Amino acid sequence: MTAGTTLPTGTTTAEHELAALQREHGRPLFALLLRLCDGDRQRAEDLVQETLVRAWQHPEALRADDFDSVRPWLLTVGRRLAIDARRARQARPPEVGDAVLENARVIGDHAERAAAMLDVREAVKTLTPEHREVLVLVYFQGASVAEAAEALGIPPGTVKSRAYYALRALRRVLPGYAADLR
Length: 182
Description:
The protein is mainly alpha-helical. It has nine helices and no strands. It starts with 12 loop residues before the first helix and ends in a 9-residue tail after the last helix.
């Protein structure tokens, strides 16, 4: 299984030995790995390939005189690779397919909302006290124009104009939020 000599066809003896190893032990190795991978054929095929790569990387183990067949060595390596792969999958979060993502609930980003609230609070502080009073009553506390006029002791037309000019001032201070202030 070393680099080997080059045969007339352009392949090496190592490649021939590896192909012979695959033909002789590939099916039993695949059957074992398929069981260890809970029926996942693709994962089992990947592990067979990885096992054969390990055999190619360690030719000394395959030529040892301690055993008659290399199958036990291959099965042990394959089993250990399957165990390592299972542990690696359990150590990281499971992968999610597109179908799952399409049906997932979308949760709003609270950080963006909190940052926007801070921006608006700072911008409201730049308004005159009269404009701020109207804006707080009408937009933040939900009062009608008539209720705000009564609470402030000013005519409803003045409430409307102050609200208009307050929003216009906020549009200048918060250019990124201009669409939200209409």
